[in-house]
Each structure stands twice: as structure tokens, then as C-alpha cells.
Amino acid sequence: MIRGVRGATTVMADEEHQIFKETEILVKEIVKLNNLEPEDIISVLISTTTDLTSGFPAKAVRSIEGWQFVPTMCTHEMSVPNALPLCIRVLMHVNTSLSQKEIRHVYLNEAVRLRPDLATLSGSQLMAE
């Protein structure tokens, strides 16, 4: 079965190392919580708010061991007034036996505000584990 898994995170500033670090943390947490392997990933669509321009989050994903052949693509989100700034969003298409209800979506840092109904862990809870 093909499912979509969502996630988002934020960075403190538009700096390449922060974009790479937070993207990698987000993707690894999505994979861990949904018991996925790189071979299960069909594709990863990553969007950023328009205030993030210093690095491609897809580069961070491709740098994860075993992920160099996973198709990734970056784009910018729509520029909507009062939207959450400095935000990276991920939509991962995966092969899984999990039902839609069982999929664990991951929202970290300030992005927990985007979908509190789907957020499985906050950044502070992750640090405690």
C-alpha cells in the first residue's frame, strides 16, 4: 500500500547548517516512528517557507546513509500572510502495510502549531527519549 507521511519542523535562522540538521532530524524521526527503510520510500517532497534560501533540504536527505537513490524534490510554500516562518515541510510517499490511522506524522519545534491534531511528538519530548 502507498501512503503519505507528513512532517514539519522549523529553524531558528536561514542558515544552511540549520536547514540540513533539522531536515535530517525530521526525516529520521518519520522513518523511525513508521518503521521504514530507504527502500520503502517512493519519493520525498520538501517545501520551505520563502524565507529559507540558504540551502536545499533535499541535499540533507540525500546525505543520509542509504538515501542517495531516494527521489527528493524541494519547492517553496505559498507566501501567505501570518504563516509560520522558517518552516520546512515534508511529504514522504512510502510503501507500507500501516493503515492511514496508524501512520505517525511528525511535527517538531514550532511546527507543532501547524497540526496539533496529528503531532505525535514535540521537540522537547524527542530530547527526553
TrEMBL record:
Record-listed prephenate binding positions: R6, R89, Y107
EC number: 5.4.99.5
Reaction catalyzed: chorismate = prephenate
Gene Ontology terms describing biological process: amino acid biosynthetic process; aromatic amino acid family biosynthetic process; chorismate metabolic process
Record bears the keyword Oxidoreductase: no
Protein name per its UniProtKB record: chorismate mutase
GO MF entry, a single one: chorismate mutase activity
Key words, A-Z: Amino-acid biosynthesis, Aromatic amino acid biosynthesis, Isomerase
A Pfam family matched in the record: CM_1
Enzyme class label: isomerase
Annotated source species: Ureibacillus yapensis
